[in-house]
Design goal:
Strand content: under 5%
Shape: elongated
Order of helices and strands: HHHHHH
Number of strands: 0
Radius of gyration: 16 Å
Helix content: over 70%
Length: 141
């Protein structure tokens, strides 16, 4: 039962990260880049902690099921994991490059990565909601 509560909390935190990303996007449009960067850093930190503390251990625990017959749940899991790793890696790259610079010019060079990252992150969240629904609402193995 406790693990289910962790997964519920993680889903809520992942939704919060998308909200933070959207808020950050609005601050960037208003040229408030410091606030934008802080929101992106916070969202990335929450996301990475969710991966390290909840998602990765769960993935490892159930890995035997994931290499079994390719059910819809297994396919959702693999696509979600791959997209999530890509989104997290790209977010870490963008955020750390920003945090290590004093100028917004360096961050602006990575602007082309930010919109695809937002879409990838959103797709990952949708896959995560699909994963959550499959296993914890519908109760499929």
């Amino acid at each position: 039962m406790m693990s289910h509560v962790l997964y519920d909390a993680n889903l809520i935190l992942q939704v919060v990260t998308i909200i933070l990303l959207l808020l950050g996007r609005n601050y960037a449009r208003r040229k408030k880049f410091r606030t934008h960067g802080l929101l992106m850093t916070t969202a990335t930190t929450i996301h990475v902690l969710g991966i390290l503390l909840i998602m990765a251990p769960s993935f490892i625990r159930y890995f035997g099921i994931l290499i079994g017959p390719p059910t819809l749940g297994v396919m959702i899991t693999w696509v979600h994991a791959a997209a999530g790793i890509a989104a997290a890696a790209l977010a870490i790259f963008v955020v750390t490059r920003w945090r290590l610079q004093t100028s917004t010019v360096a961050c602006a060079r990575r602007r082309k990565l930010m919109k695809p990252l937002l879409y990838l992150w959103g797709a990952t969240l949708l896959l995560g909601i699909g994963f959550y629904s499959w296993y914890y609402i519908l109760g499929y193995p």
